[in-house]
């Protein structure tokens, strides 16, 4: 299948109109219609619902193809760039996924230093929680990712980053514990608690805490604590999290209170095992390691 035809289809999907899409693509409307019909014949699927006059609607198969085509075209574009520039010069776009933590600030400093050395290098940051980052890595939407331990998958190359995050609770300033210096694990069951949706993280926490989290007190699950800022600000809820969250996204109405136990978590740089790290990834890894030594 020609990537050109996929671009045609995506343009039609985005505009919802053959005439407008043809103008954007600088081709005639009959040519575009023929290409779309051939694509449907090749796939043996109807991709566009043509019943609504003046506006095309994607079928279920069309929606699926639109999502996958966008990924395929981006992957093809990235591949062309890498092959054409597979020499000693570092350029193109380095796509980095990263959890919200203190490490993200360090990564920004590394990127700044890299662009001074390699002015043709661009970056694309994708911020999310670990499971989303691993999914993006598997789908080749990002080149590498910085995760928080534990990392359970063996399908990645892993390089430990000695930047540690301290665990505690994050509460609003109206919360009864807001002025506390620390919180003991046994007290966690005395407040309405919102925890990570990652089971492996919760199991690791319970092992370190030496106690089980009471399901009656757990009121919800999250991927990013910034999603519940309003709830925390009410003073009625608390969430287990890392100190670096408020370093990256400062909020004057929230406070971090460390746990009485010394629970710390390291970061890990990961990339796919089925691909050799690019020169950009290798340079990023080396410069990150040097930057950590300066901390």
Write the layout of secondary structure elements.
Blueprint: H1 3-15, H2 18-25, H3 29-43, E1 48-49, E2 57-58, H4 60-84, E3 92-98, H5 102-117, E4 121-127, H6 130-138, E5 144-148, E6 156-172, E7 192-196, H7 199-209, E8 218-222, H8 229-233, E9 237-242, H9 244-248, E10 254-258, E11 264-272, H10 279-294
Parallel strand pairs: 3-4, 3-5, 7-8, 7-9
Antiparallel strand pairs: 1-2, 5-11, 6-9, 6-10, 6-11
Helix pairs in contact: 1-2, 1-4, 5-10
Task: Provide tags for this entry.
3 domains; DNA binding; Arc Repressor Mutant, subunit A; 42% helix; D-Maltodextrin-Binding Protein, domain 2; 295 residues; LysR family transcriptional regulator; single chain; alpha/beta; globular; two-stranded antiparallel sheet; DNA-binding
Notes on the structure:
There is one protein chain. The protein is of the alpha/beta class and 295 residues long. The protein folds into 3 domains: 3-84, Arc Repressor Mutant, subunit A (Orthogonal Bundle); 92-162 and 266-294, Periplasmic binding protein-like II (D-Maltodextrin-Binding Protein, domain 2), CATH 3.40.190.10; 164-263, 3-Layer(aba) Sandwich (D-Maltodextrin-Binding Protein, domain 2), CATH 3.40.190. Helix content is 42%, strand content 24%. The protein has 10 helices and 11 strands. The strands form 2 sheets. Strands 3, 4, 5, 6, 7, 8, 9, 10 and 11 form a 9-stranded mixed β-sheet that branches. β7 (192-196), α7 (199-209) and β8 (218-222) form a beta-alpha-beta unit.
